[in-house]
Amino acid sequence: MMKRIKDYLSGQPQNDVVVKGWVRTKRGNKNVAFIALNDGSTINNIQVVCDLAKFDEALMKQITTGACLCVRGDLVPSMGSGQAVEVQAREIEIYGTADPESYPLQKKGHSMEFLREIAHLRPRTNTFGAVLRIRHAMAFAIHKFFNDKGFYYLHTPLITASDCEGAGEMFQVTTLDLDNLPRTEEGKIDYSQDFFGRQTSLTVSGQLEGELGATALGSIYTFGPTFRAENSNTPRHLAEFWMVEPEMAFYDVNDLMDLEEEFIKYLVQYALDNCQDDLAFLNKMIDPELIERLKSVVSTEFVRLTYTEGIKILEASGQKFEFPVSWGVDLQSEHERYLVEKHFGKPVILTDYPKDIKAFYMKQNDDGKTVRGTDVLFPKIGEIIGGSEREASLEKLNRRIAELKMDTTNLWWYIDTRRFGTCPHSGFGLGFERLLLFVTGMSNIRDVIPFPRTPKTAEF
Ligand code: 4AD
Ligand code: MG
Fold first, then answer.
1. Hey, whose CA ends up nearest to atom 29 of ligand 1?
2. How many C-beta atoms lie closer than 10 Å to residue 191's C-beta?
3. What atom in ligand 1 is closest to the CA of residue 384?
4. pTM, full prediction
5. Which ligand 1 atom lies nearest to the CA of residue 164?
6. How far apart are CA 416 and CA 211, in angstroms?
7. Residue range 164-207, pLDDT digits in tens
8. Ligand 2 centroid, distance to 144 Cα (angstroms)
């Protein structure tokens, strides 16, 4: 099997090794060159030592930052500090050069804004290498967590005719000729002639289909891209983001909150155990409190509080908020962060929100005003999870749908779950990139996904 730099760095000295990777730096003197080579398997570079008497000068000149090399030599104990082993090179093949005049990733540090403009190359930087490896580890841990608990991975569709959250923030999917739209007799667009014979969009959430899975398989999760055409230019919103959505039959709101808390703690602990080098790098370069914060979340009990109690705390805070608070308003990130960072100093699960600021499917409380929704609020992030116990009563669900004047033509199958063998059930959605903001300490959501989609940007 082909060995990678990570394997060599943690292994024993040996003769006749082959290392392949991209040059991070080259330094040295007239007798010897030291090349730091990285292949993405770890944040750490391997040092390649070249005795210049044995190498052609023209070849050595072409070895510059960004070039791709195949090096044959011996893995020997290193003379220098900073690494246990290094490669004494015998033979170097240059796979590809990188002209120093035009290769944008030279040794100096670059701003995150600049790196977004070269998103095709930024995975080659230390920061993005670390973030992308952690992203992978978190995706793997999500599957492991649910698989170990007996949840089934259900693939929910990306193209849909329903709007789960009812916010109308959907990207339309059509093959109609936009320059020549077919019209009905009333002059409306005739979607019966569209590809699916109806109006369709990219999904904002896999939940509705997730509920179909949970009411058959018991406990399921879906994990995939979701799309929101909301014009929010903030460090926490993407137009295309990944969401993890478990849905469980026979869970009430308390079982739900237990799972939410256990799940996030598991993921953070998994990162602490499995991504040590990358976290140490990010802690040093991006956020000096990162590892401390991760450890503290794993070891503290989250606060559980009703929305009504939360509003009271905010009103009594004497704090001047940009958006004023009173019972009934949707909480802004400044309010969420006040509760989490200033008031409690730990994650908060807020429950029992006013029904008018939450989606139609949430279980209605007896007070007629609130629903069993839960938002998990995190330091630096604000809302990281949104979930709820679902309304299981056909009558109550239908009443709410009527109150909201929702069009049910595309929801009949969802309503059927309440007609046939309805059951108490709950579920939540974790924004995968919001989790990654927390775990990496990065401050902009555009920098924890390889190729971000936001208003007016869809390059790469
Ligand atoms: O709170 P939301 O809108 O909930 C739902 O979509 C439910 N159907 C989930 C469920 O119960 N199965 O979104 C869930 C989470 C939020 O808490 C947030 O972390 C993330 O998705 N999120 C976004 N992340 C990045 N960019 C956006 N525009 C996001 N909108 C929501
Ligand atoms: Mg939400």
1. 237
2. 19
3. 19
4. 0.97
5. 8
6. 11
7. 898 889 999 999 999 999 999 999 999 999 999 999 999 999 99
8. 25
Closest ligand 1 atom to 167 CA: 3
The residues, ordered by sequence, that sit 6+ positions from 63 with a Cβ below 8 Å of its Cβ are 23, 26, 33, 35, 69, 92, 94
Residues in contact with ligand 1 (CB, 6 Å cut-off)? 164-165, 205, 207, 228, 230, 237-238, 241, 243, 245, 383-387, 427-429, 431, 433-434
Structure confidence at residue 167 (pLDDT): 85
CA 21 – CA 236 distance, rounded (Å) = 34
Which residue has its alpha carbon closest to ligand 1 atom 7? 429
DSSP 167: S
Q: Alpha carbon 399 to chain centroid distance?
A: 36
How would you write 7-51 as a 3-class SS string?
Answer: HHHCCCCEEEEEEEEEEEEEEECCCEEEEEEECCCCCCCEEEEEE
Nearest to 293 by CA among 345, 332, 336: 345
- Give the CA distances from residue 443 to residues 140, 405, 435, in Å, rounded to whole numbers and listed in that order: 23, 39, 12
Residues 403-441 have pLDDT tens digits of 999 988 889 999 999 999 999 999 999 999 999 999 999
Nearest Cα residue to 418 out of 225, 208, 179, 269: 208
What letters, b where the CB count within 10 A reaches 16 and e where it falls short, cover 57-88? eeebeebbbbbbbebebebeebeeeeeebbbb
Question: Cα(181) to centroid of ligand 2, in Å?
Answer: 35
pLDDT digits (tens, 9 = 90+) for 240-285: 999 999 999 999 999 999 999 999 999 999 999 999 999 999 999 9
Residue 132: which of 40, 212, 55 has the closest Cα? 40
pLDDT over 80 at 450, yes or no: yes
Cα dihedral sign, 338-344-348-353: negative
> Which ligand has an atom closest to residue 357 CA?
2
Handedness of CA 97, 100, 106, 110 (dihedral sign): negative
Residue 357 Cα to ligand 2 middle (Å) = 10
H or E element at residue 386: strand 382-389
Helices (H), 153-220: 207-217
Ligand 1: atom nearest CA of 238 is: 26
Ligand 1: residue whose CA is nearest its atom 18: 431
